[in-house]
Specification:
Chain lengths: 208, 208, 208, 208
Amino acid sequence: MSTATGQVSPFPTPERRRRDRSAKREAILDTALELFLEQGYHHVTLNQVAERLHITKPALYNYFAGKTEILFACWMAGFEQAAEAIARIEAGPGDGLTRLRALIRDYGLLMTTPRGRCLIRFDDRDFTPEQRDRISACKKQVDAAFRSWIAAGIEDGSIRPCDPKMAAFVIGGALNWIGQWHRDDGPMSPQAVVDDFADRLTKGLATD
Amino acid sequence: MSTATGQVSPFPTPERRRRDRSAKREAILDTALELFLEQGYHHVTLNQVAERLHITKPALYNYFAGKTEILFACWMAGFEQAAEAIARIEAGPGDGLTRLRALIRDYGLLMTTPRGRCLIRFDDRDFTPEQRDRISACKKQVDAAFRSWIAAGIEDGSIRPCDPKMAAFVIGGALNWIGQWHRDDGPMSPQAVVDDFADRLTKGLATD
Amino acid sequence: MSTATGQVSPFPTPERRRRDRSAKREAILDTALELFLEQGYHHVTLNQVAERLHITKPALYNYFAGKTEILFACWMAGFEQAAEAIARIEAGPGDGLTRLRALIRDYGLLMTTPRGRCLIRFDDRDFTPEQRDRISACKKQVDAAFRSWIAAGIEDGSIRPCDPKMAAFVIGGALNWIGQWHRDDGPMSPQAVVDDFADRLTKGLATD
Amino acid sequence: MSTATGQVSPFPTPERRRRDRSAKREAILDTALELFLEQGYHHVTLNQVAERLHITKPALYNYFAGKTEILFACWMAGFEQAAEAIARIEAGPGDGLTRLRALIRDYGLLMTTPRGRCLIRFDDRDFTPEQRDRISACKKQVDAAFRSWIAAGIEDGSIRPCDPKMAAFVIGGALNWIGQWHRDDGPMSPQAVVDDFADRLTKGLATD
DNA sequence: GATGAATGAGGATTCATTCAT
DNA sequence: TATGAATGAATCCTCATTCAT
């Protein structure tokens, strides 16, 4: 990326072009996300997003097709993290209960981050029908992870027999709720919260 | 209100006037609430509300000062039901655990009704600062009920020692979540859901 | 108006009816006029007028056909006072200069009263075309009084030859302006102001 | 700004951009001003302003923050002319009487122009409190000019001793009134009017 | 004569989006 | 790629006015 003289070429290579572009997209996304969470989607104008980035409104359209595209991208950014956690746990070792606890911890932690909060703080009805469909499918994936590991735990004897669906609802509700009440400047660290929750939410489920 | 001939006088008494007015206010409120839950506050226009009531938009202003006033009234209507349940349980008999279970059932049931859903489906940032303050106080009341009965249960021995705050977060989260996933046309009746939840959410807490 | 027993009959005679009605009309007019001068015609709602009178908005329509009718009546109330002054001076003795000075004093005094202020503080374009026509005619009358007495003064030698029209413009402008700057709580009493003005405005005109 | 071939570049330089923008602002201002004087502020809609300019309503918001901003800008445009006249006379030679006469002429002429008329035809109560404050300060400047030159004239002997405040009221009233009665298509040219007024209004004041 | 309720018309303002440059 | 400018669509709200009672 540097010339023989050690200077950075002012002519960006196609490679760097792509990286720049991608970085800008990310910047827009994070800024928008921040504002959306702060003020609520409908109270945020694209002008605000642009201003905070020191660019102009139409420039945003070079990276996103419109306001809901940004919203959607925010949501997806959050989902990717959830999906990664699920994949990681899936790939790792452990019985049903172990995996469930791991997911509770990871998903709970996610809920204390901006990207994670998007998953439940955004209103479904602000998306286009197409986006809604995709989101719905993603949510099902997450739900399926919870349910399947509960079911697996019952199967492998680490979890007492119960209705996985209802159990998942309780756990999911408690975890999602974290995104509403947890404050970074609060008394409990995210890690402490999720450790507590992992215990508490599986206490009644574990066989031992 | 009826003449000797048994006919209702067409001249409304002041009493009836008040009742009529109140009934209309309620009708507006329920219609708005319905639409808000269906489409989301920002996607609902006052025209829609008026149309569904077969009146005109400005007529709404005879009953509410503006759009956010309606929103606020919806929220408060939901809160009143919660407050009533709390008062009823408070006035009734039972140890901490009994009361907690009763609240879980009542609050959970509320979450399956339109008015109850308002409590958690509306976005705080759509209210005026003054409204937000009042709502915040109301929310504290509900939270206090959960925490105080958990604490009372620990005191009276019906609940195992634990952190009432965290326990309340778990329970509150699970219950509020009901408002998001429960469908009236779903497989489980509201009563069945809350009975299950009352069990499930206190299983780990009960001393016996 | 009282019965033989000395009590006032609760059944108003037609005569008293008329007086009541007239009194109410006047009350509305004065209240409206007050508000119009305070806040400007377009910033005053009929609700405000009604409220200040402790009646309801539609009640106003029993006395006036609409908002502009009230405005018009206010203006006319002011004009009547001017017309009376003119008639009184016309009927009285004195040469042209004497009469001009008397008119300056009376018209100037009028400008320090609410009714008088209406004459120049209201915007012509807030009236209907018909009202505008009538007002225009009234204004001409006042203007004619000024001009004719100036002309009469030139004729009778009390005023030095000059263009009556231009002189009237100067005098009229100075007098109307009083309505804009004079405050009841200011340092000069209305009488002091108009005495000063009568002098000042005729100093250059008088022959002596 | 032009290419070697003498053609104007279609790519506006920043400089030209600024000029264009400024010119458009002026155009809006003049159009609005025209309409305000024609129909009165409250009877003019932004749509009318936009239509007369062959643009759309929201385009106006690129140049002015709102309707009252336009109103305010109109007033200020008028004031600037008055301020310039005052500064010019102040900078020039002459005793108090000479300067007073010059101001009468210039201010009187201003009153026969659209921009000048704004100074007295707009209603103070249509401005925001902040604007009102600024306008009030401006008006004081103009008033101060009249009074100070009258006082200066008394000092230097060109004007007979009198109360400068009252004299300024008379002169100001007469001049402002021009804006109400003078028509461009009337019998007297603006210049003729103000020459006459300068004479007439100082006749009683001059020492000789 | 007075009222509560309802209405119709209108107007300012906001904002996502587009386009020429 | 980025920008200034312009637009169209939409919405809340106000208010004079009317009408049944």
